[in-house]
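Demo today. Your pick:
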Amino acid sequence: MQPLSATDFTKLATFRSSPAISIYIPTHRSGVEVNELQDAQLFKSLLQETRKKLDEHGMKKGEIAPLVQAGADLLEDDDFWRNQQQSLGVFMGKDFFFAVKMPDKVNSEVFVGPHFHVIPLFPLLKPKPFFFLVLSKGNARFFRGNRFGIGEMEVKGLPNGIDDVIHFEEKGGQQTFRRGGNKGKAAFHGHGAGLADEDEYIALYLKEVDQTLMTEVLAAEKAPLLLAGAEGMITRYRQESRYPHVAAMSLPGNHEHENTSDLFEKVLPVLQPYFEEDTENALKNYYNHSATSLSSTDPFKVFAACFYGKVSDLFVDAGLHIRGVFNPETGQASFRENFGIATDCLVNQGAVQAYLANGNVHVLKKEKMPEGGKVAAFMRYA
C-alpha cells in the first residue's frame, strides 16, 4: 500500500461542492469477513444511508444517483474488497471520486457537507519510514517499510546465514571466507589453529551483514532499523553494527519463515512509539507553554488562529464535529446545532487551514486531548 500523497490529500482537502460525500468504514485484511465480503456489505449500507441523507435535505433521486454511482460501481469489484487494509475512506462529489485504503482503524461514518471530511486522513501524511532486519543463523532478511506496509529488499552480497560466511578449509588451522561481498570478491579471515567457537562465527556473520547493509543501503539513511531474532543475536548485532539508528525496541523470537504480512502485523505495535513520537513531542511542547498565550483550548480562538495561519500544532478529537461558519473578516465563528448539508465542520476546516499554512495536525482520541478541550492549539505567535 502506497502512502497518501500530499497532492492527492490537498485535492481532497480543498474540494468544494455541495454536497461532498465522505464515507469511512473499518475493513479487514483476512478472515471470514473477507471471504464473505462483509466490508462491501457495510459500505452498501452506508451508501444507502447517504442516499437517505441527501433525500432528507431536498435532493431529487435524479440528482442523487449520479453522485453515488461510482460508489455503487465499487460494490461490484470483489477483488477490491478482498484486498483491504484496516479502514477505507471513499469520497464522492460532482464529477469526483476517490478511495483510499488506511492502515488504522476508524469508525463507520457518513459525512455530507460542502467539503470532504479529511481529519482521519491526516495520520496518513506521515508514513514514518523504517528498516527491518530479521536475523537467524540460517538467514538474514532485510525490509524497507512504513506505517502502510513492508517490502523485502534484495540486497547485493547480503549473507544467507552463517554457512554463507563460514567455510571450513581445514580441521586444524582453519580459514573463513565471505562468498558474497562487493564485486564478488571473497574476504578471508584467518582464525589460526583450532576450531573457533560458534560465538565467533555468529559475530563474523553479523559483522558481514552490517557491513553489507552499510555499503549497499544504510550509509546515508537515518530511519530506525528494527531488529528481529533470538535475543542473543539481537544483542550481538547491536554490538557489531555501525549504523547509528538501530531501534531500542526489537521483535524477539524466531521469525525466519514468517510471511511479510504476518511480520508487518507484529512490527506495527512494536514501532507504535516511533509512529507517535511527533505527536508526543508536540503535546509536551503544548503543556510546557500551557500557561502562556501561545496555547489555547478555546474553540473560537483556535479556529481563528487556524484560518489566519498562526497555528504551529493543532490537536483535534478524531470523532468530533462542530458544525458552523467562520467569518474571516470579523474573525468570528458561529456554531449551529440545526444544520444542512451546506454547513461546514469547523474542526475539519480549521485543520485543513492549519495544514495549508504548514501547521501540524495531530488527530487524537478524546481522552488524550490537552486539558480536556474539544480542540487545542499551540501558536507560532500570540
In short: The chain has three domains: 6-125, 130-270, 277-379. The domain at 130-270 is CATH 3.30.420 (Nucleotidyltransferase; domain 5). The first strand starts at residue 16 and ends at 26. The two ends are 41 Å apart (CA to CA).
